[in-house]
User: Fold these one by one.
Assistant:
Number 1:
Amino acid sequence: MADIHPPDTLSTVPPTPAGLLSNREKDTLIERAFTGLYRWYTARSQETRNWNADLSFDWRSLRADLPEDVITVIQGFFAVEQYAPDYTSELLNLVRASHGRSHFQMRWGSEEEKHADAWENAVLFSRQRTPEWIREYKERLKSKQWELPFPDAIHNLVYTVFQERATQLNYLNLMKIAQGKSDKPHLQGVEDPILAQVAQTIAIDEAAHYNFFLEGVRLYLYYYPQKTLEAIKNVIGQFSMPAQQLVPDWDHFFETVYKAGIYGPRDFSRDVMQVAFRNLGIESRKKLEEGIKKTREVPDFEGEQARTTIIWDTFDYGAIEGDVKRLHVKIQDYEKKIGLDELDPTEFVENPEVPRAKPGE
Ligand SMILES: [Fe+2]
Ligand SMILES: [Fe+2]
């Protein structure tokens, strides 16, 4: 179905050249893939990660003598996660018209809510904060409201990829400390199998979140490379962890996390940005910035074609096409299990704008 535009705006809508996908067609394909991925994700989440914040851990056995630095870290993790209702409602509202994305956002919210509850239990059972103190702290946190870091869906989607990876890294590094593997002198001998189990369980959820949002960004990158690469550039240019402005004593928390070897600017660049870049077929931040700059420098008279050629050179589009195809195979395998393949299968449609190697090249 064609887009419907009021007659007086018709001349400003660029026509879709013959043989290319219209934006509407692209959006439909992205939406279908998101819905398929969401269904696959939900089944997998229920099958493999159906834990409970109260019952899945032996809370009574959590150590009561953890060092103050560890408590500061856990308390900060709790503070960030307890904004789950804000994160969910804001993001949900942004993508409410998309079945796959809005339903996913609710599922995601239900998992983030478990993270908040598990970290709260960890703070409480550490026995170093009283229930009254925790109640007051929560009140203080909830008196402020988290807002979207970016106004549009694509930037927030990209932001979430980096944020989920950074969060996963934070939890994995706390897990190592709780396993007695820290190389920091002040964190020797703080083994706590329960804390390690909590951190690991939540980190596995964060990895699943990262993967969902990553697949989403790949879809956008494949069908809308220019817009998506610009969003990636903007997001990494001003990345910070969520709720940084809302949590009291953030600087103290951040310094403790840094001193503990859990997370800092170097970890972001090496273990968050570089990892996400590799997964998105982007060689480096420099290459990304140069590519975008070059597309802007293309003189008007050379037209859209020259600009498009440069953008495809900015990332490994062959790898991304492979990833998007693999995602569709995963969705199709899932649909076969149910019989959806007979009624309404999700199909991969090639983006004709992707440069193809000529025979002999
Ligand atoms: Fe979380
Ligand atoms: Fe998450």
Number 2:
Amino acid sequence: MSDRTQTARSVPSRKPCLTAVLRMAGLRPTRQRVALAELLFGGPHRHVSAEQLHDEASQSRVNVSLATIYNTLHQFHEAGLLREVAVDASRSYFDTDTSDHHHFYVEDEQRMIDIPASSVEFAALPDAPKGMKVSHVDVVIRVRKAQ
Ligand SMILES: [Zn+2]
């Protein structure tokens, strides 16, 4: 597992930088987007659900509805700033680390833990359907506390 504390913030505020990141991703840096980007990208890489981000936003006095959080997360995802990891039909996490890697999902804690891409090997992968190519492979290994 990689040590993610190394990517912790090194400057007090990344606001100007985040504004630039949003612009470069083709998103207008509205106050709400910048505030949510700060929560998401202001520290080490992380995995967050829409509900968790909504709670954090409320605690930071950023008043946004859950619907806006969903929209913003999907916009960030479409813009390539976040990776979406679907755990099941009703639950997705958004990963600030968009590089190739896999995940453990701790079912009892509803938490994701990174697995480096190099730790998972495939003996065989089917060819992509005709006219298509594999964009990436997501592995989610579900774990729970051993009794
Ligand atoms: Zn991850």
